[in-house]
């Protein structure tokens, strides 16, 4: 499996705030271009905590929100209103603050359980591919979305039921690396000293889940100083 590391544009920023601001600028520009070219913009949101500040920034921009379509890269198998749901974080920081039509926001039905939710979501995303933009984070072990080390995935399965995830909760749903790469552009948001080891391994070409994803077009890593491995030039 070839690492995507050599295909990435690494953008070094000073702080998490710089990542949030730059990410919002990138998403805004990509959205405008997609809407000009194709009349709509499909965005896959990353989960976890890093993107929250970027989503809050995004909520302040002027955009043709009626033409935005929102998907999720992964979800935790928790009730829809659970504070640890990725869909709840996105709603609180962005989706409750902008007028994207409700039927254009597509949360992963992970409350139905990993298998059922994955089956339903694979039908939901089928007509949306390729996505215009996918946002992703990276975990300290090199996972991304809910694709974890030592977890097998099949290219034939576009949306994966995940069990025994090392990052709680154990049961999750994730777009596969093939599906996540089925996009025109991809941006990783990487912040904090906890990510240094995973970033170093990624740069070294280690076979990590984050290394598996290759977009159809440009892929960029927005990374702050804290997340860069020591002694990086
Ligand atoms: C999740 C996320 C996960 C996240 C990374 C980084 O559901 O947990 O999708 O892949 O992006 O674990 O998380 P932080 O941004 O909180 O460091």
Briefly summarize what is shown:
This protein has 233 residues and is α/β, with parallel strands linked by helices. The chain contains six helices and nine strands.
Explained architecture:
By secondary structure, the chain is of the alpha/beta class. 28% of the residues lie in helices and 21% in strands. It has six helices and nine strands. The protein has helices spanning 16-38, 51-58, 86-95, 114-126, 177-180, 196-203; strands at 8-13, 41-45, 68-72, 74-76, 131-136, 159-162, 172-175, 183-190, 218-224. It has a six-stranded parallel beta sheet with strand order 1-9-8-5-2-3, with helices on one face. It has a three-stranded antiparallel beta sheet with strand order 4-7-6. The mean pLDDT is 96. Residues 46-50, 74, 76, 86, 137, 139, 143-146, 167 line the site of 6-phosphogluconic acid.
Assembly category:
single chain
Provide a count of the helices.
Answer: 6
If you compute it from the alpha carbons, what radius of gyration comes out, rounded to the nearest whole angstrom? 16 Å
Strand order, main sheet: write it out: 1-9-8-5-2-3
Contiguous low-pLDDT stretches (5 residues minimum) are: none
SS class:
alpha/beta
Shape designation: globular
Strand residues, percent? 15-25%
The separation of the N and C termini measures 27 Å
Taken in chain order, the helices and strands follow as: EHEHEEHHEEEHEHE
Helix-strand blueprint:
Layout (H helix, E strand, L loop, with lengths): L7 E6 L2 H23 L2 E5 L5 H8 L9 E5 L1 E3 L9 H10 L18 H13 L4 E6 L22 E4 L9 E4 L1 H4 L2 E8 L5 H8 L14 E7 L9
Helix pairs in contact: 1-2, 2-3
The structure holds 6-phosphogluconic acid.
């Amino acid at each position: 499996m070839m690492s995507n590391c050599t295909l990435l544009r690494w953008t070094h920023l000073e702080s998490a705030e710089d990542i949030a601001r730059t990410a919002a600028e990138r998403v805004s520009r990509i959205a405008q271009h997609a809407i000009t070219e194709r009349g709509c913009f499909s965005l896959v949101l990353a989960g976890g905590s890093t993107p929250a500040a970027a989503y809050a920034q995004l909520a302040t921009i002027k955009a043709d929100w009626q033409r935005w379509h929102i998907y999720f890269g992964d979800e935790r198998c928790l009730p829809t209103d659970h504070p640890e749901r990725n869909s709840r974080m996105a709603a609180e920081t962005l989706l409750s603050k902008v007028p994207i039509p409700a039927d254009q926001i597509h949360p992963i039905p992970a409350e139905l359980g990993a298998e059922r939710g994955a089956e339903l979501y694979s039908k939901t995303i089928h007509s949306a591919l390729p996505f215009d933009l996918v946002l992703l984070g990276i975990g300290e072990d090199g996972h991304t979305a809910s694709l974890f080390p030592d977890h097998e995935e099949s290219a034939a399965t576009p949306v994966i039921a995940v069990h025994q995830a090392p990052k709680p909760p154990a049961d999750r749903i994730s777009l596969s690396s093939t599906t996540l790469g089925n996009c025109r552009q991809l941006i990783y948001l990487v912040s904090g000293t906890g990510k240094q080891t995973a970033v170093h391994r990624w740069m070294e070409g280690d076979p990590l889940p984050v290394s598996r994803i290759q977009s159809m077009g440009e892929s960029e890593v927005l990374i702050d100083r804290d997340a860069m491995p020591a002694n990086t030039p």
